[in-house]
Specification:
Distance between the termini: 31 Å
Radius of gyration: 21 Å
Number of strands: 3
Low-confidence stretches: 79-86, 91-98
Strand content: 5-15%
Number of helices: 8
Shape: globular
Order of helices and strands: HEEEHHHHHHH
Oligomer: single chain
Largest sheet: 3 strands, mixed
Number of domains: 2
Mean pLDDT: 82
Helix content: 55-70%
Amino acid sequence: MSELRRLKTLLPPELQSWVMVEGSTEVNPSLLRCEELGKDEVEIQVDLTQWENFSIDQRNLLFWHEVARIQNDTIPREGWEMAALAIGLGGAVGELWVQDGLLLLLALTLCGISGYRLWQKNNGERKLRESLDADEKAITLATRFGYSLPNAYKSLGSALKTLIEQTPNRRQRKRYETRLQALRKSAAKAKAKMQQNPVQRPHL
């Protein structure tokens, strides 16, 4: 079984009909990237070259992180905001030329709304919160597919450690470090809850 077909089997049944898994064709691709292809279709793109640097368990948890982002509805949408911003700016320039106050106001309003949506999309704190939420849901997905809770935490934690080691970009590396710290706190909370039940406890 090819790796892409194997990953497809890791999709929850409710996603299998509309989520595609493909190899990335970009020049400098991200390890994993979600893209909305249409109203009812999403594609997860995998850089298979980088993917080889991770163990099967690490791959699974990183993949489920992307699946969780789809389930949480936090993947990037089609770039209508950029189009609206361009239209609004073009309209504003045009209305300045003809001096139509109402149309100028409408064009500037369109610019403001689309600009705010772009700011929201690229807001670092919001993106980090979405990643932390996706990590939590990835753990849940792993247990749904047969992982014990300790092994799910361990696999995602080791994957994040590998990403930290292999990421030269300081800002991106900091995001991975923050995610790892949050995951450790989550594992500690899970361990505390399991103390009344003497089973294997998660640790990173």
